[in-house]
Structure formats: C-alpha cells, structure tokens
Amino acid sequence: MTETPVTTAAPSPETLMPGVAVPDTRAGYSGVIVPADRLLDFARALRDQHGYDYLSSVTGVDYFPENNLEVVYHVYSTSGGPGLVFKTQLPRADPVAPSLFSIYPGVEFQEREAWDLLGIRFAGHPDLRRILMWEGFAGHPLRKDWHEAYFEEEGKPFKNRWPEGNVYRIEDKVPFEDNLTYPPDFDPESWTPETDAALYAGLAKVENPGGHRGASPDRSGGDGHAIDTDQLVINLGPQHPSTHGVFRVVLSLDGETIVDLKPVMGYLHRNHEKIGERNTFLMNMPFTDRLDYFCSMGNNFGYALAVEKLMNIKPPERAEYIRVIMAELTRIVNHLATIGFLLNDLGAFFTPIIYAFGERELILDVFEAVSGSRMMCNYFRFGGLARDLPPGVLDTIRELVTDRLPRRIDEIDAYLTNNEIVRTRSIGVGVLTRDRAIALSAAGPVLRASGVAYDVRRAEPYGIYERFDFDVVTRTGGDIYDRYLLRLEEMRQSLRILQQAVRDIPEGPIQTGKAQYQVRVPAGESYGRVENPKGELGFYIISTGKPNPWRYHVRAPSFINLTALGEMCRGTKVADVVATLGSIDIVLGEVDR
Amino acid sequence: MYGLGIVRGLGVTLKHFLATYVDDLRWFFERISGGSGGRYYNPEALKARQGTKARGVFTVQYPEEKLPVPEEFRFVPFLIYDTDAAGVQHDRCTSCGICAKVCPPQCIWIVRSNDPASGRPIPEPTEFFIDIDICMNCGLCAEYCPFDAIKMDHDYELASFDRMNHHIFNKERLSKPASYYASIRPRNNAAEEAARAAKEAAKEAAREAKAESA
Hints:
The complex is a heterodimer. By secondary structure, chain A is of the alpha+beta class. Helices cover about 35% and strands about 15% of the residues of chain A.
C-alpha cells in the first residue's frame, strides 16, 4: 500500500540541451531560459530523457519596463527530488509561445489562465478561451500597465490613509455607472455570449447518435428496437448545490451517457494575484487564508515558505513543530469535510457531514484559541508564527490526537466504508489511470489514489517533515472509492505525525529575529510548495527588493485538479459527475482566486 | 450478505441518536441531585457539550446560549484610552500610522493635527476611522502597534440596519477604556503591563544614573 519514492540526482541545467537552454544568470534567479521556437523539443527531452514527467506550474511574468513577457514552467519528477524551472521570453507586443499541451496535457487550464490574465497566446492550444475573467472583459489584468476600477496607487500602503486621513467610501467616490468602459465595438444591450457558443462548439460530438456506444452497448431494451437518441447539451450549475459553490459544468450527452464535459469557472474571481502584487509581503498572509478557506493554515505555510526562501531565514524549532501540528490538523479538518460532502453528493443527505463537522468543530476550537479565528487563521509569519500556543491548548491537541480523533475516524470507517450503496456508486466510477493522472498534473489525493506515491512532504521535504515517521498512502484503483479510502488513511497518517509532534515539541522562541511589519525581501524568484490537503499548493514569487512583490502567483491544486474532470467523467452518467466532482475536492475560493 | 454494510452503518447512526438521550438522562440526574440545572443554558453544560469528551447533541442554542470566545479571538479593532487620576481620558494612540500602513485592505484612516498655540503636532489623533465593512479581522494592526493602543475586540454582534456610512466607525465609536481590554484579554494585558512597567523602570534607572553622573 505504501512505498518510498526514490530520489534521483537532478541533471545540472548546463547538461540539458547545451546551446539551446541558457542558464538564467539574473541575481536570485535559477533555472534555464529556452527560446520559444525550441520550447517543444526542450520539453519533450525533459519528459522523455530526464524524467521530469510532472509539470507543476505554468505562469507568466510581465516585466513591463523591459518590454518583456516571460513564461515560467516548473517541472518535477514523480519519483521525487528537486525540480527544474525553465522560462521562455517573449516580446510584450505579440507574445506567442508554443503550447505544451501535446507534451503535458495538464497545462490546459493553466495556459488558458496565462492567456486570460496576461495575454500570452499559446499556439496549438486546443481551446484557448478566457477562463477566469468574463467573456466581454477588455485587456489582461495582470499586465503591469492595467489598472483596476478602484485603482488608487501601485502599491500599498496608500498615502491618503495616513497621514492625510481622507476618509471616504470608495462606492461614493467611484459610482458604478462611470466605472465601466466598454470596448468601442461592444454594446452591452445587444450582447450575447459568443464564447458560450464557442464553448458548446468545443464539446466533442456524438459520432453516431442512436448507435451502440457508451456504457450500455445494447439499447434495444431487449425487444430489438434501437432507441434513437440525440446529442443534448446541458448546464450543471452555476447555481447548483452539488457543485460546491458557484461552478458550472457543461455536459454533452448521448442519452444519459456523458460524451464530453467542460468546466466553466471564474464566478468567484477577484484577481487574488493582482491584489497580491499591490499588497506588501506581510499583507498577503491574511489574503492566502481566503484561497482554500478550509485549509488556511496550509496556505499560510506555503506562502511563508516561499518568502522565507527569498529572505533566507528559518523559523526556530518550536515554531517548526507548531507549523507541522497546524498543517496536519488542517489536513484532518479538510479530509473530514471532503468525506462528508462526498457522501452528500452520493445522496446521504447531511447525516455523515454533520458527524464529520462535529469533529471539525473541535479542531477549529483549537485554531480559534491559537490564532484568534476559526477559519481565517492568519497565523504564520515570515521566520515564525504570530504568537505562541496559549496555555492548555497543547493538552487539548494531545487529547484529540491520541484519544478522540482516532476513534472517530474509525467510526467513520465503520459507518461508510462497507456501505453497499457507497460501494456501488463509487467503485469503478470516475477512474483516472496512473499515466493520465501524471500527464494531467493531478495533485494530492487524486494523484495518489491513481497509484503515484508522490507527496511533497516526502518528495521534497519542507519544514521538519523529514523527521517524522509516516507513510505516503497510495491506492491503485483511481476511482471515487479509492480517493475516499485514501483520505481516510491519510487522516490516520496525519494523526501519526501529530502524535510524534506533540510528544517532541520543545520549548523556546517562536520567531526568528524581531517581528517586523515591513520585511526586507531580497530581489529574486522563489517557488514555495507544500502538500496541502487538496494537493500541491505552490507560491511563485518574484521580488525586486521593493516592499511589494513584483509577481505573486498561486498554483492552486483544486483548479489544476479540475483539468482531469473531463477525463474522469467521459462515459459515465450525469449523477456520477456530481460524485466525481465531490471526490476531486474543490474549493471555489481557490479555483477562481 | 448484501445490505450488512448499510445495517452496520445505521448502527453508528443509532449510537449517535441514543447518545443524546444518555446525555440527557445523565444531566437530568445531576440536576435532581443538586447540579446547576440541566443540559442547556448554563456555562458548565456548554463546556461539557463542546469539550473533547463531548458526545450527543453538539449544537448551541444561539442566541440564548453563547459560546465563550477564547482570549485570542479577534474581531473588528478598537482603540484603548487610559483614564488618569483626575478622570481625564488619554488616547494611547500616538497616530504613528503603523496600523494604517500594515492594514491589508487599507481600512484605517488617521487624521493628525497641530496644536494651534505652539504649531507642534499633537500626538493623539484628531480623528480615527475604520471602515468595518472592509476590515478583514486579520489582527495585524493590533499585532504591530508599538503602544498597545489598538486591539482586537471580542464583541462580534455588530449587525445594524444601515449599511452605508454607519459602518465607518469614528474615534468615539472605536474608543474603549483600558479596563475593558483588561477584562477581555487578561493574560495579554498582564504581559503587556509587565513589559511596560519594566521599560519604565529601566528608563527611570537610566535617568537616575544620568543625574548621578552629572
């Protein structure tokens, strides 16, 4: 059931296609720069010859004054070890890069996002449409010369807050009517969403309506008369309780069998990354809470790691232990909620989730006592934590992880695992094979349930995870049931880590140096990633030495895991889409950012 | 046998169902033997129902019952004033602006002014605004205030009928006495008072040493 990934030595950047890949020599930067016309060859060589089979993140950076757009790729090997970052530089006026879709199909949504927010066109992408912004939107908001509606200044803090103190409600100052500018050829009254037509046109067609295909080859019903069916396109959502938020799935059906499926997202989009680039480094910490609001401690962890890498500092011992304790409690909170919601999606209306939420409440009580808030924790700081554990909290955690939670997880196991309805609905449904899971950049439980023992805590340990004894849980079925079982087992492994952590936690300071509200972050780039409960959460940060980050990108696991949704659902029934979506475990705060 | 898993699962549901009655009975007997009065509407019962040993009904009858909030709980900030022996109120705030500069959604506005007689700046702020619609309760202002002048409140019941300018709190609305702070955060307050006393003592000692050497 478990295996330890083998760590392979990474090839040095110089040995990768010399003459094509030039090492990135800018201060604080790493990796190689590849010309756009050789990008496909380079990526193919990376995947096939050097073992970098997993593309973690694709994003762009706008170097506005230099008239330069850069596409940044982070690749890793699923057998573990450090990754490689490669970039390609494009002219800002007409940025066209070859799409890596043919090599790493997992780039599909990420390239669409880079097109949407930065205006980088990916030649050869099968479906390059906007993904987060709305269809009529003009411009690409992450470009540095793009200003938002309530634009005040390039970077916080804003001058009029102090010392001027001109108080006003922004709504009074910028009334909504004057706040919109339409492109010259755009009339909002007569506008119909063309992209919806493009979206429906992009769906795969039923090749032979009424013919024998899909999950039920014999449609005759036994009497020899075939039933003629037509292709039907239906929208599931955006307002649908089983979509876990405001999320829309467009389905193309042959009878009841799904021929193709496309997720539509962005209804909760607030351009987290643009806000992040206006903020100072510290201000981003509470904003990360709002990404995946079930796992705010985990999000804090990832962001703190990325900035600490740039600042080259480490938190003290006690803080490291508290970080691990909080991150693993978060994992239990998340997996409890996921299992509960999955059962909701399967039709077990609210009883399982209420049992799961009861246990979650006790952990949230701990978070509230420690950080001051149940969900928006904002507890991590660069080089440490906001405050030490209040007296008594460690005893509560000890009681929970040694006594109550193990029993309760066993109870959930006894309650659901052998339930025949759960088994019938989930075994063999929503299958993602091992190879496709890697190719589609699936992360976390979705990847591991497909038989890939890839866990960032093991593959590239951060914090003090290398000290703890735990197993990377894997399952081989890749279906909904395996993802459920995997989460159950992962909670037990988290409890193992927690039991070791509460046993070994030392006394001592919780902050390196003095706590500062303005941190000095040296120029450079860094990619901090953690194994969040939903998968690999990465923060790609570029600092220019100023108080605000130049680029702040979030590799959101539930967004990228959705790339595999279509693959999982083709050939299944409509009701299975709901269950499959529940088993992927998405949070719209993170998908839409 | 098909269905056995479902039946076993329903056993768990039954156990949860019965646990509420077992708890009710236990509390009932405690009450007739002179306990504080049943399973609801008293802090002792709340502690047992919400603790790590809790089973049975987990929910709280809000607003009749309110969960006590932990000391670190944070909600919209407030300003602290000290009252001197003569009963005059002094803001701890010196309008240094660190809270306004650290605030992630930029919801703090501080107005400073100069003394008309001497022309020198007055340390206490003339006006202090927080737009509580924008405030995200992150607590960074309280965390980085060097004068312990702005702190996070425990009062989370701020609903009002107006949603416009009413939600921009001014200095009068934000100010609360130091005694209130001491009552909601006794542990933090004691630590801060001790730190301030130590600082004062060190300053005093330095002044005496200076006076002696002069």
